[in-house]
TrEMBL record:
This is IncI1-type conjugal transfer protein TraT. It comes from Salmonella infantis. The keyword Coiled coil applies. Residues 13-40 form a coiled coil. Keywords: Coiled coil.
Amino acid sequence: LKKRGEPVATGEKEKYNTAVKAAERALEQARLSARRLSLRHVQKAEITSTESLSEKEQELFHEDGPPYSLCAFCHAWHSLNGYAAAQGVMVWLPDLHPSTVVALNRRSLQEVFSNDKFRVRRGREALSALMQNRLAVEDKFRSFRPADFADVFRRYPPSGRSPLREKMNGIALILTPDSFIKKEYVD
């Protein structure tokens, strides 16, 4: 839009300004979304620099791969109406950072998928302890199904989701063994 230049006619000028503002807002929302995604994996205390990545660090991102390649857990968190999330439950864990929830969920599923009976039992116990927190979500929102939360988000425009996100602060997605076709996705 900026390369084309600003139109001269007043009617076109208003449309142009509206389109530029919408594009800037969409870009800002994309930046915020990327920041939230990265903070799920990296604790804020571990961030030491906000400089641009070096060439060596850029190579680690596998530019030949798909542009939006996410781990299975993050993909499920971002697509609550997808298959993996549909097999999971929403739980109330306000004291835990999302990266900690993902790590606990991943570790318990790794234990469940192991070949050792003792580890499988420990993994199932940890998973059921995490999933017990779904009752608080059901009391507050009358559902703990991820698809219901996806429908609510779909009904609100992006500009109106902030109050909804504040109400849902502390809610996390816990995936079950049925969420994964292969155990390699958990590793």
